Amino acid sequence: MNAIEKLKKKYRWIYHFQSALNLIEWDFETHMPRKAFEKRAEAIGTISTFVFQYLTSDELGGLINQAEKEARTDEDRAIVYFAKKDYEKQKRIPPKLLRKFSEETAKAQAIWQEAKEKSDFSIFSDQLEKVVEIVIEIAEKVGYEKNRYDALLDFYEPGMTTEKLKGIISPLRKFLVEAVDKISSVEKPEDIFKKYKFDMQKQKELSKKVLEIMGYDFGAGRVDVSAHPFTTTISHNDVRVTTRYDVHDLKNSFYSTVHEGGHALYEQGIPEEYRGLPIGDGASMAIHESQSRFWENIVARSLPFWKFFKSIIEEYFEVFKRHSAEEVWRASNIVERSLIRTEADEVTYNLHIMLRFDLEEALINRKIKVKDLPGLWNEKMKEYIGVIPPNDREGVLQDVHWAHGTFGYFPSYMLGNLYSAQIYYAMLKDLDFEKEIEIGNFDRILSWLREKVHKKARTREPDELIKEISGEELSEKYFIRYVREKYSDLFSVSLL
Ligand SMILES: [Zn+2]
User: Fold this and answer.
1) Nearest to 252 by CA among 289, 285, 206
2) Strands 223-225 and 238-243, how do they pair?
């Protein structure tokens, strides 16, 4: 066996442990009895430490070096490239520091929970400061060229820098703030999705139906309920999604399902022979998010979608017969100056991210202090979105990410939105998107995504992938164009 084959075999071996970990983590979030919490957390800790130790072992390092000399095909070269990159990055973080990170973030999550319940940031402040200091230490160990925050961004969106991000954000923010102003000046449509009571069982059936229509393979997946919807890949042919149901809010559950369905289609489209290897994942967090956002917003919040889907949703909820497809379409695209990121519409969503990016970047570079976060948060909310949170729970304490220590992650959500729009305009050159949707033919859309995005998995860096798809680097202009075209139509406002 040559070194490449040996390397692949080792990765596939360690992937079995990863699979086990993914399965018990999925169970942790869905079916596990409440009292099992502590012991399960210990088991997760043990297995993840084992996986991490192997991924940073000298044995694996040696194999990667040998394989590098033998890589001849593009695929093998990509395997070695990403193997080496991941290995070296992980090696730079001392195990002791990583352990400290796990311990302090575990504590931080419990404290954050309490602080959020009591809506009091001061309870969380000291622990968050500890987490920030550890994250700064990690960034220093990992290294960066210009800005310490770049080291963190690179974990989630390889190649992205603070400078590039600021270049994207500046015109986008200006456009979005003005767009929200203009859209807010017209009358808000009636929210059909919140107007009636929607039976839970029927919602479950509807979730399955929409996933089926999108092309999700139920022979290789399943849907369950969890507090926070997510998608996880246990192994090849086992890609699971979760969602949540609220009888008073059909929009939330329906679009959560479609969103996770988009992630799941990406995972189901990753070639079997790549699974377990460093190339067997999505290209980046943001590319992954582009797939979920594409289905959620660009497909399922379009007028052709509702022209097609209205007669289907009527089979589950007759009340939809009282409304036209246009009315449902408008209701699915209500723009609001809202407090909570996860419930934000696609026009205000990126503004929520920009606020978090500003604060994170300043924290990591020690330009601001943790204790000043609530005040700064509220100032930025007023400036960007035009509302001030009445309390910490609906303000600075709403997201768990900082307690997790995942600084640098938030921008992926915004970049996902931008990628999805850029991918959409590339797709328009190849197929009649509106017509396909209106007749309920999602096959060609899915095949296109399979070909251009899914099958390529992580065989290249995200910047390379988007250039191949669209002929250009990532740009904010496509998202701006998308919002302009869609919302001018929706609300008869001029968004120039
Ligand atoms: Zn997502």
Assistant:
1) 206
2) parallel
Q: Is 260 a catalytic residue?
A: yes
Judge whether residue 496 has pLDDT over 80. no
Rounded Cα distance between 296 and 274, Å, is 27
Between strands 231-235 and 238-243, the pairing is antiparallel
> How close is the Cα of 461 to the center of ligand 1, in Å?
19
**Integer Cα distance of 208 and 213 in angstroms:** 9
Say if residue 38's pLDDT is above 90. no
Give per-residue pLDDT as tens, 219-244: 999 999 998 899 999 999 999 999 99
Question: What distance lies between CA 82 and its chain's CA centroid?
Answer: 21
Euclidean distance between CA atoms 443 and 24, whole angstroms = 33
How many angstroms is it from 1 CA to the middle of ligand 1?
Answer: 40
pLDDT tens for residues 122-181? Answer: 999 999 999 999 999 999 999 999 999 999 999 999 999 999 999 999 999 999 999 999
Task: Report the chain's C-alpha Rg in angstroms.
Answer: 23
Catalytic residue among 25, 68, 104, 260: 260
Strands in 223-225's sheet, in edge-to-edge order, are 223-225, 238-243, 231-235
| Exposed e or buried b per residue across 414-434, where buried means at least 16 C-beta atoms within 10 angstroms of its C-beta | bbbbbbbbbbbebbeeeeebe
Q: How far is the CA of 73 from the centre of ligand 1 (A)?
A: 33
Chain-centroid distance of CA 120 in Å reads: 28
59-62: long-range pairs with CB below 8 Å, 24+: 59/10, 60/10, 60/87, 61/87, 61/91
- Angle at 160 (CA atoms; ends 74, 162), nearest 5 degrees: 165
- Calculate how far, in angstroms, residue 70's C-alpha sits from the geometric centre of ligand 1: 37
- Rounded Cα distance between 409 and 361, Å, is 11
Rounded distance from Cα 287 to ligand 1 centre (Å) = 10
Which residues hold their Cβ within 5 A of ligand 1, which is an ion?
292
pLDDT higher than threshold 80 for residue 37 = yes
Chain centroid to CA 432: how far? 27
